[in-house]
Amino acid sequence: MHELSIALSILDAVEEQADLHGGARIAAVHLKLGPLSGVVKEALLSAYSLAREGTDFAACDLLIQEVPITVFCPKCEARRSVESMQDHRCVECGTLASKILSGQELEVCAMEIAE
């Protein structure tokens, strides 16, 4: 389960930020996660919960923002959503799109420092 190694990497980043801010308590980590990242949200949340047990970051929450898949449609010349993860066709005109604009994210985008 690679979600555990990802959870451990997130906690490493939390520890680094806490140290950079004089030992501040990090209350939450905000993560962007796309369906094409190869990471299962529920598995990551479970792994994170397990990984933080018994650490200085046991109270640090992981808040996941799910990012939808969007593509650039060459026919519409616009950003469009798709109907499924397997079929990257424009929902407006049905054209197959090869340029993925979002949905591959696995990105820590913010950390909340507790007061």
Keywords:
about 120 residues, alpha+beta, hypothetical protein PF0899 fold, three-stranded mixed sheet, three-stranded antiparallel sheet
Brief write-up:
This protein is an alpha+beta fold and 115 residues long. 27% of the residues lie in helices and 30% in strands.
Overview of the molecule:
- The protein is of the alpha+beta class.
- It has one domain: 2-Layer Sandwich (hypothetical protein PF0899 fold), CATH 3.30.2320.
- The chain is 27% helix and 30% strand.
- It has helices at residues 2-20, 41-52; strands at 26-33, 61-66, 70-73, 78-81, 99-102, 106-113.
- The strands form two sheets. A three-stranded mixed β-sheet has the order 2-1-6, covered by helices on one side. A three-stranded antiparallel β-sheet has the order 4-3-5, with no helix packed on it.
- Helix 1 crosses helix 2 (41-52).
- The longest helix has 19 residues, at 2-20.
- The radius of gyration is 17 Å and the shape is elongated.
- 24% of the residues are buried.
- The mean pLDDT is 94.
